[in-house]
Hints:
By secondary structure, the protein is an alpha/beta fold. It has two domains: 1-353, Alpha-Beta Complex (Spore Coat Polysaccharide Biosynthesis Protein SpsA, Chain A), CATH 3.90.550; 360-457, Hexapeptide repeat proteins (UDP N-Acetylglucosamine Acyltransferase, domain 1), CATH 2.160.10.10. The protein has twelve helices and 26 strands. The protein has helices at 2-14, 21-35, 68-75, 108-123, 138-145, 193-199, 202-208, 228-236, 278-282, 299-307, 360-367, 401-406; strands at residues 47-48, 55-57, 78-83, 101-103, 106-107, 129-133, 155-159, 163-164, 166-167, 185-186, 213-218, 241-247, 257-261, 264-268, 289-298, 316-322, 325-331, 344-348, 371-374, 377-380, 391-394, 413-423, 425-428, 433-441, 447-450, 455-457. The strands form eight sheets. The chain has an eight-stranded mixed beta sheet with strand order 2-18-12-15-11-3-6-7, sandwiched between helices. A four-stranded parallel beta sheet has the order 21-22-24-26, covered by helices on one side. Helix 5 (138-145) links the parallel strand 6 (129-133) and strand 7 (155-159). The longest helix is centred in the first third of the chain and has 16 residues, at 108-123. It is globular, with a radius of gyration of 23 Å. The chain starts with a helix and ends with a strand.
Amino acid sequence: xxxxxxxxxxxxxxxxxxxxxxxxxxxxxxxxxxxxxxxxxxxxxxxxxxxxxxxxxxxxxxxxxxxxxxxxxxxxxxxxxxxxxxxxxxxxxxxxxxxxxxxxxxxxxxxxxxxxxxxxxxxxxxxxxxxxxxxxxxxxxxxxxxxxxxxxxxxxxxxxxxxxxxxxxxxxxxxxxxxxxxxxxxxxxxxxxxxxxxxxxxxxxxxxxxxxxxxxxxxxxxxxxxxxxxxxxxxxxxxxxxxxxxxxxxxxxxxxxxxxxxxxxxxxxxxxxxxxxxxxxxxxxxxxxxxxxxxxxxxxxxxxxxxxxxxxxxxxxxxxxxxxxxxxxxxxxxxxxxxxxxxxxxxxxxxxxxxxxxxxxxxxxxxxxxxxxxxxxxxxxxxxxxxxxxxxxxxxxxxxxxxxxxxxxxxxxxxxxxxxxxxxxxxxxxxxxxxxxxxxxxxxxxxxxxxxxxxxxx
Length: 458
């Protein structure tokens, strides 16, 4: 059955002129692996908790060299790659998410460029920035990066693969049924970063320039900055792959975790967990860490494994609906590649290295006095005594960035706030301070204007 499905799919895909031969082959291989029923579940009895040799505590790493020339030598081997394929649609924005303004008039991309420029200026290095776009973000990003032409950072862009969405009913590509616009296609997850680096020619270019390691992270993670201690450890210990993990909180119970499995370090995602063990997986007592998606990877190892077609990451099925038609997207995650690399480890890093902005509730935190910005780095305010951030829950009226901004005359002080929940049509004045757990609520018929310069307490 599987062979017939794939043969039929191959004939359809062969007619799709919008994508390259590499993309066609990558797509067919992914679907073939999926229909062959490759095992997604793990044997629960074989899971072991990683030791400190497998998941190394960040605090125990050897300090980075102090000498500027030695630091430059480390940085000369490094490339910074940001996963820039996402749109800001969930926050009501058009275009790449990385151009949403974070604070002080600066976007994610502005901050990223400033950080790398600061490194290059300080140490005389020339760390390049790579942006992996999707077909959704490519055109806009190309225009945006022009404004950095005078920055002390060489910026490269390349696209991840473009795959056709699969119609569930008959397993044909959606573009073959006439849906040739953007809705007919999808980018197949950030696991695609490895073949796309190779197929774009960027991998060979970087290797020819003497680059040996890439630091990969999400463009919306403001904590994902170059860490010289990790870079030093990576090079000194010849690790082909390092995944940054951080202690799990109740907000992170679904995040993938590192395990030792049959003698190798492996990422365990919730989708792979047998149903009877899901609650155990979510426990923060047994599985104490989760993947931040900050990854440090050896470029020569990427080339070796991609050339050998050895990166068979777990397939993540992502069902969608387009104009009433049920479709399927098959995706992979970059973290799942850890098991294919030699001498791969995790490093248990401070929570400060995981500061993603996925919603306006996260945006409120980073725009507030909990953080300061210096040289593009978003730094925790030392006046905040509690190491945890307040838990922010904003109602649907705040979901879109423009609505969120219009409802705050100025961002409230959160230094002494433990939590904020807002329900209803509520507008905040300027100079407001929040202390403890604050809950603001009005009924659906009411509106509340909170006056300027007051303190709201629990």
